[in-house]
Amino acid sequence: MGGSLGSIATRTAESAGRAAAVLAIFGAGHANAQEATKPAHKLVRIGTFEIDRHEVTVGQFHAFWKATQIKTKAERDGGGFQYVGGWRRMAGWTWAAPNGDMLGRHDTPVVHVTWHEAKAYCEWMGLRLPTDAEWVEAAYTERRPSPPAPFVTGRTYPYPSGEGAADANQIESNGKCHFSPPVSVETRDGQRLGHVSVGSCPPGVNGLYDMGGNVWEWVDHDVGGQKRTRGGSWWYGPAQMKADALYEKDPDFPAVYIGFRCAR
Ligand SMILES: [Ca+2]
Questions:
Q1: Cα–ligand 1 centroid distance for 20 (angstroms)
Q2: Ligand 1 centroid – CA 54 distance (Å)
Q3: What is the pTM of this model?
Q4: Which of 18, 163, 165, 194 could cross-link with 238 by S-S, CB 3.0 to 4.6 Å?
């Protein structure tokens, strides 16, 4: 996922200077919108459709932000949400600074984006959000003709990571992939937690990364005006990673736990 943005994780942005810092670090910002190039996407074919191998990253979303001059809802409203005994707006927490006090690494999943913003990003890329059925097919049923062990063609697994959930970035992970400071700083049950760079965990069903855990993923599925999220996140255990874990959120809700990937 190379690039010149890796060093930003160690940069601290003061609240008042954050926008300037983001512009300085990411480049010329909106001023050079016409020069923006679209980021590369690695898609995996699953039958009749393709889906991103990774969650969409901060670096990829930055190209969209720069080209379209979008101001995300979290940016407009002063920050996205975190659950702290209830949903709380976190000042300055945005796609560029997922935890406010430091800028997001380019190879970490973008969060604090609404369903509408995720959809707009995918469409800007000539892609779209996966449907719920596509996401489920890709996450749980192995479709590769010759998958590496232990995966078996045609088998449907309980978790996107396979028979077990220990390889995923979730609260009961065994440590194969885990919080990598300083992207997120949070504690739950005495553990330091957060999302990790995409591809940090072992690949799961269909060779896809982080379909289970890391960050929730918006899909194109409406339930009474709410939009479904799939796969659980680093904040939860394995139960939220399963196919029967059905959760929906307001499509205008930006949160530190929610990202997305695209399909076509
Ligand atoms: Ca995920």
A1: 30
A2: 8
A3: 0.86
A4: 165
Residue 234 near residue 185 (C-beta atoms within 8 A)? no
The CATH number of domain 37-259, selected from 3.40.190.150, 3.40.50.300, 3.90.1580.10, 3.40.50.150:
3.90.1580.10
Instruction: State how far the alpha carbon of 34 is from the alpha carbons of 51, 64, 149, in Å.
Output: 28, 11, 46
Q: pLDDT tens-digit profile of 209-231?
A: 999 999 999 999 999 999 999 99
Output the pLDDT for position 37: 84
Q: Report CA(236)–ligand 1 centroid distance (Å).
A: 12
| Helix, coil or strand: residue 251 | coil
- Looking at residue 65, the DSSP 8-state letter turns out to be H
The Cα 244–Cα 56 span in angstroms is 24
CA of 214 relative to ligand 1 center, distance in Å: 5
Query: From ligand 1's centre to the CA of 67, what distance in Å?
Result: 26
Domain boundaries, the chain: 37-259
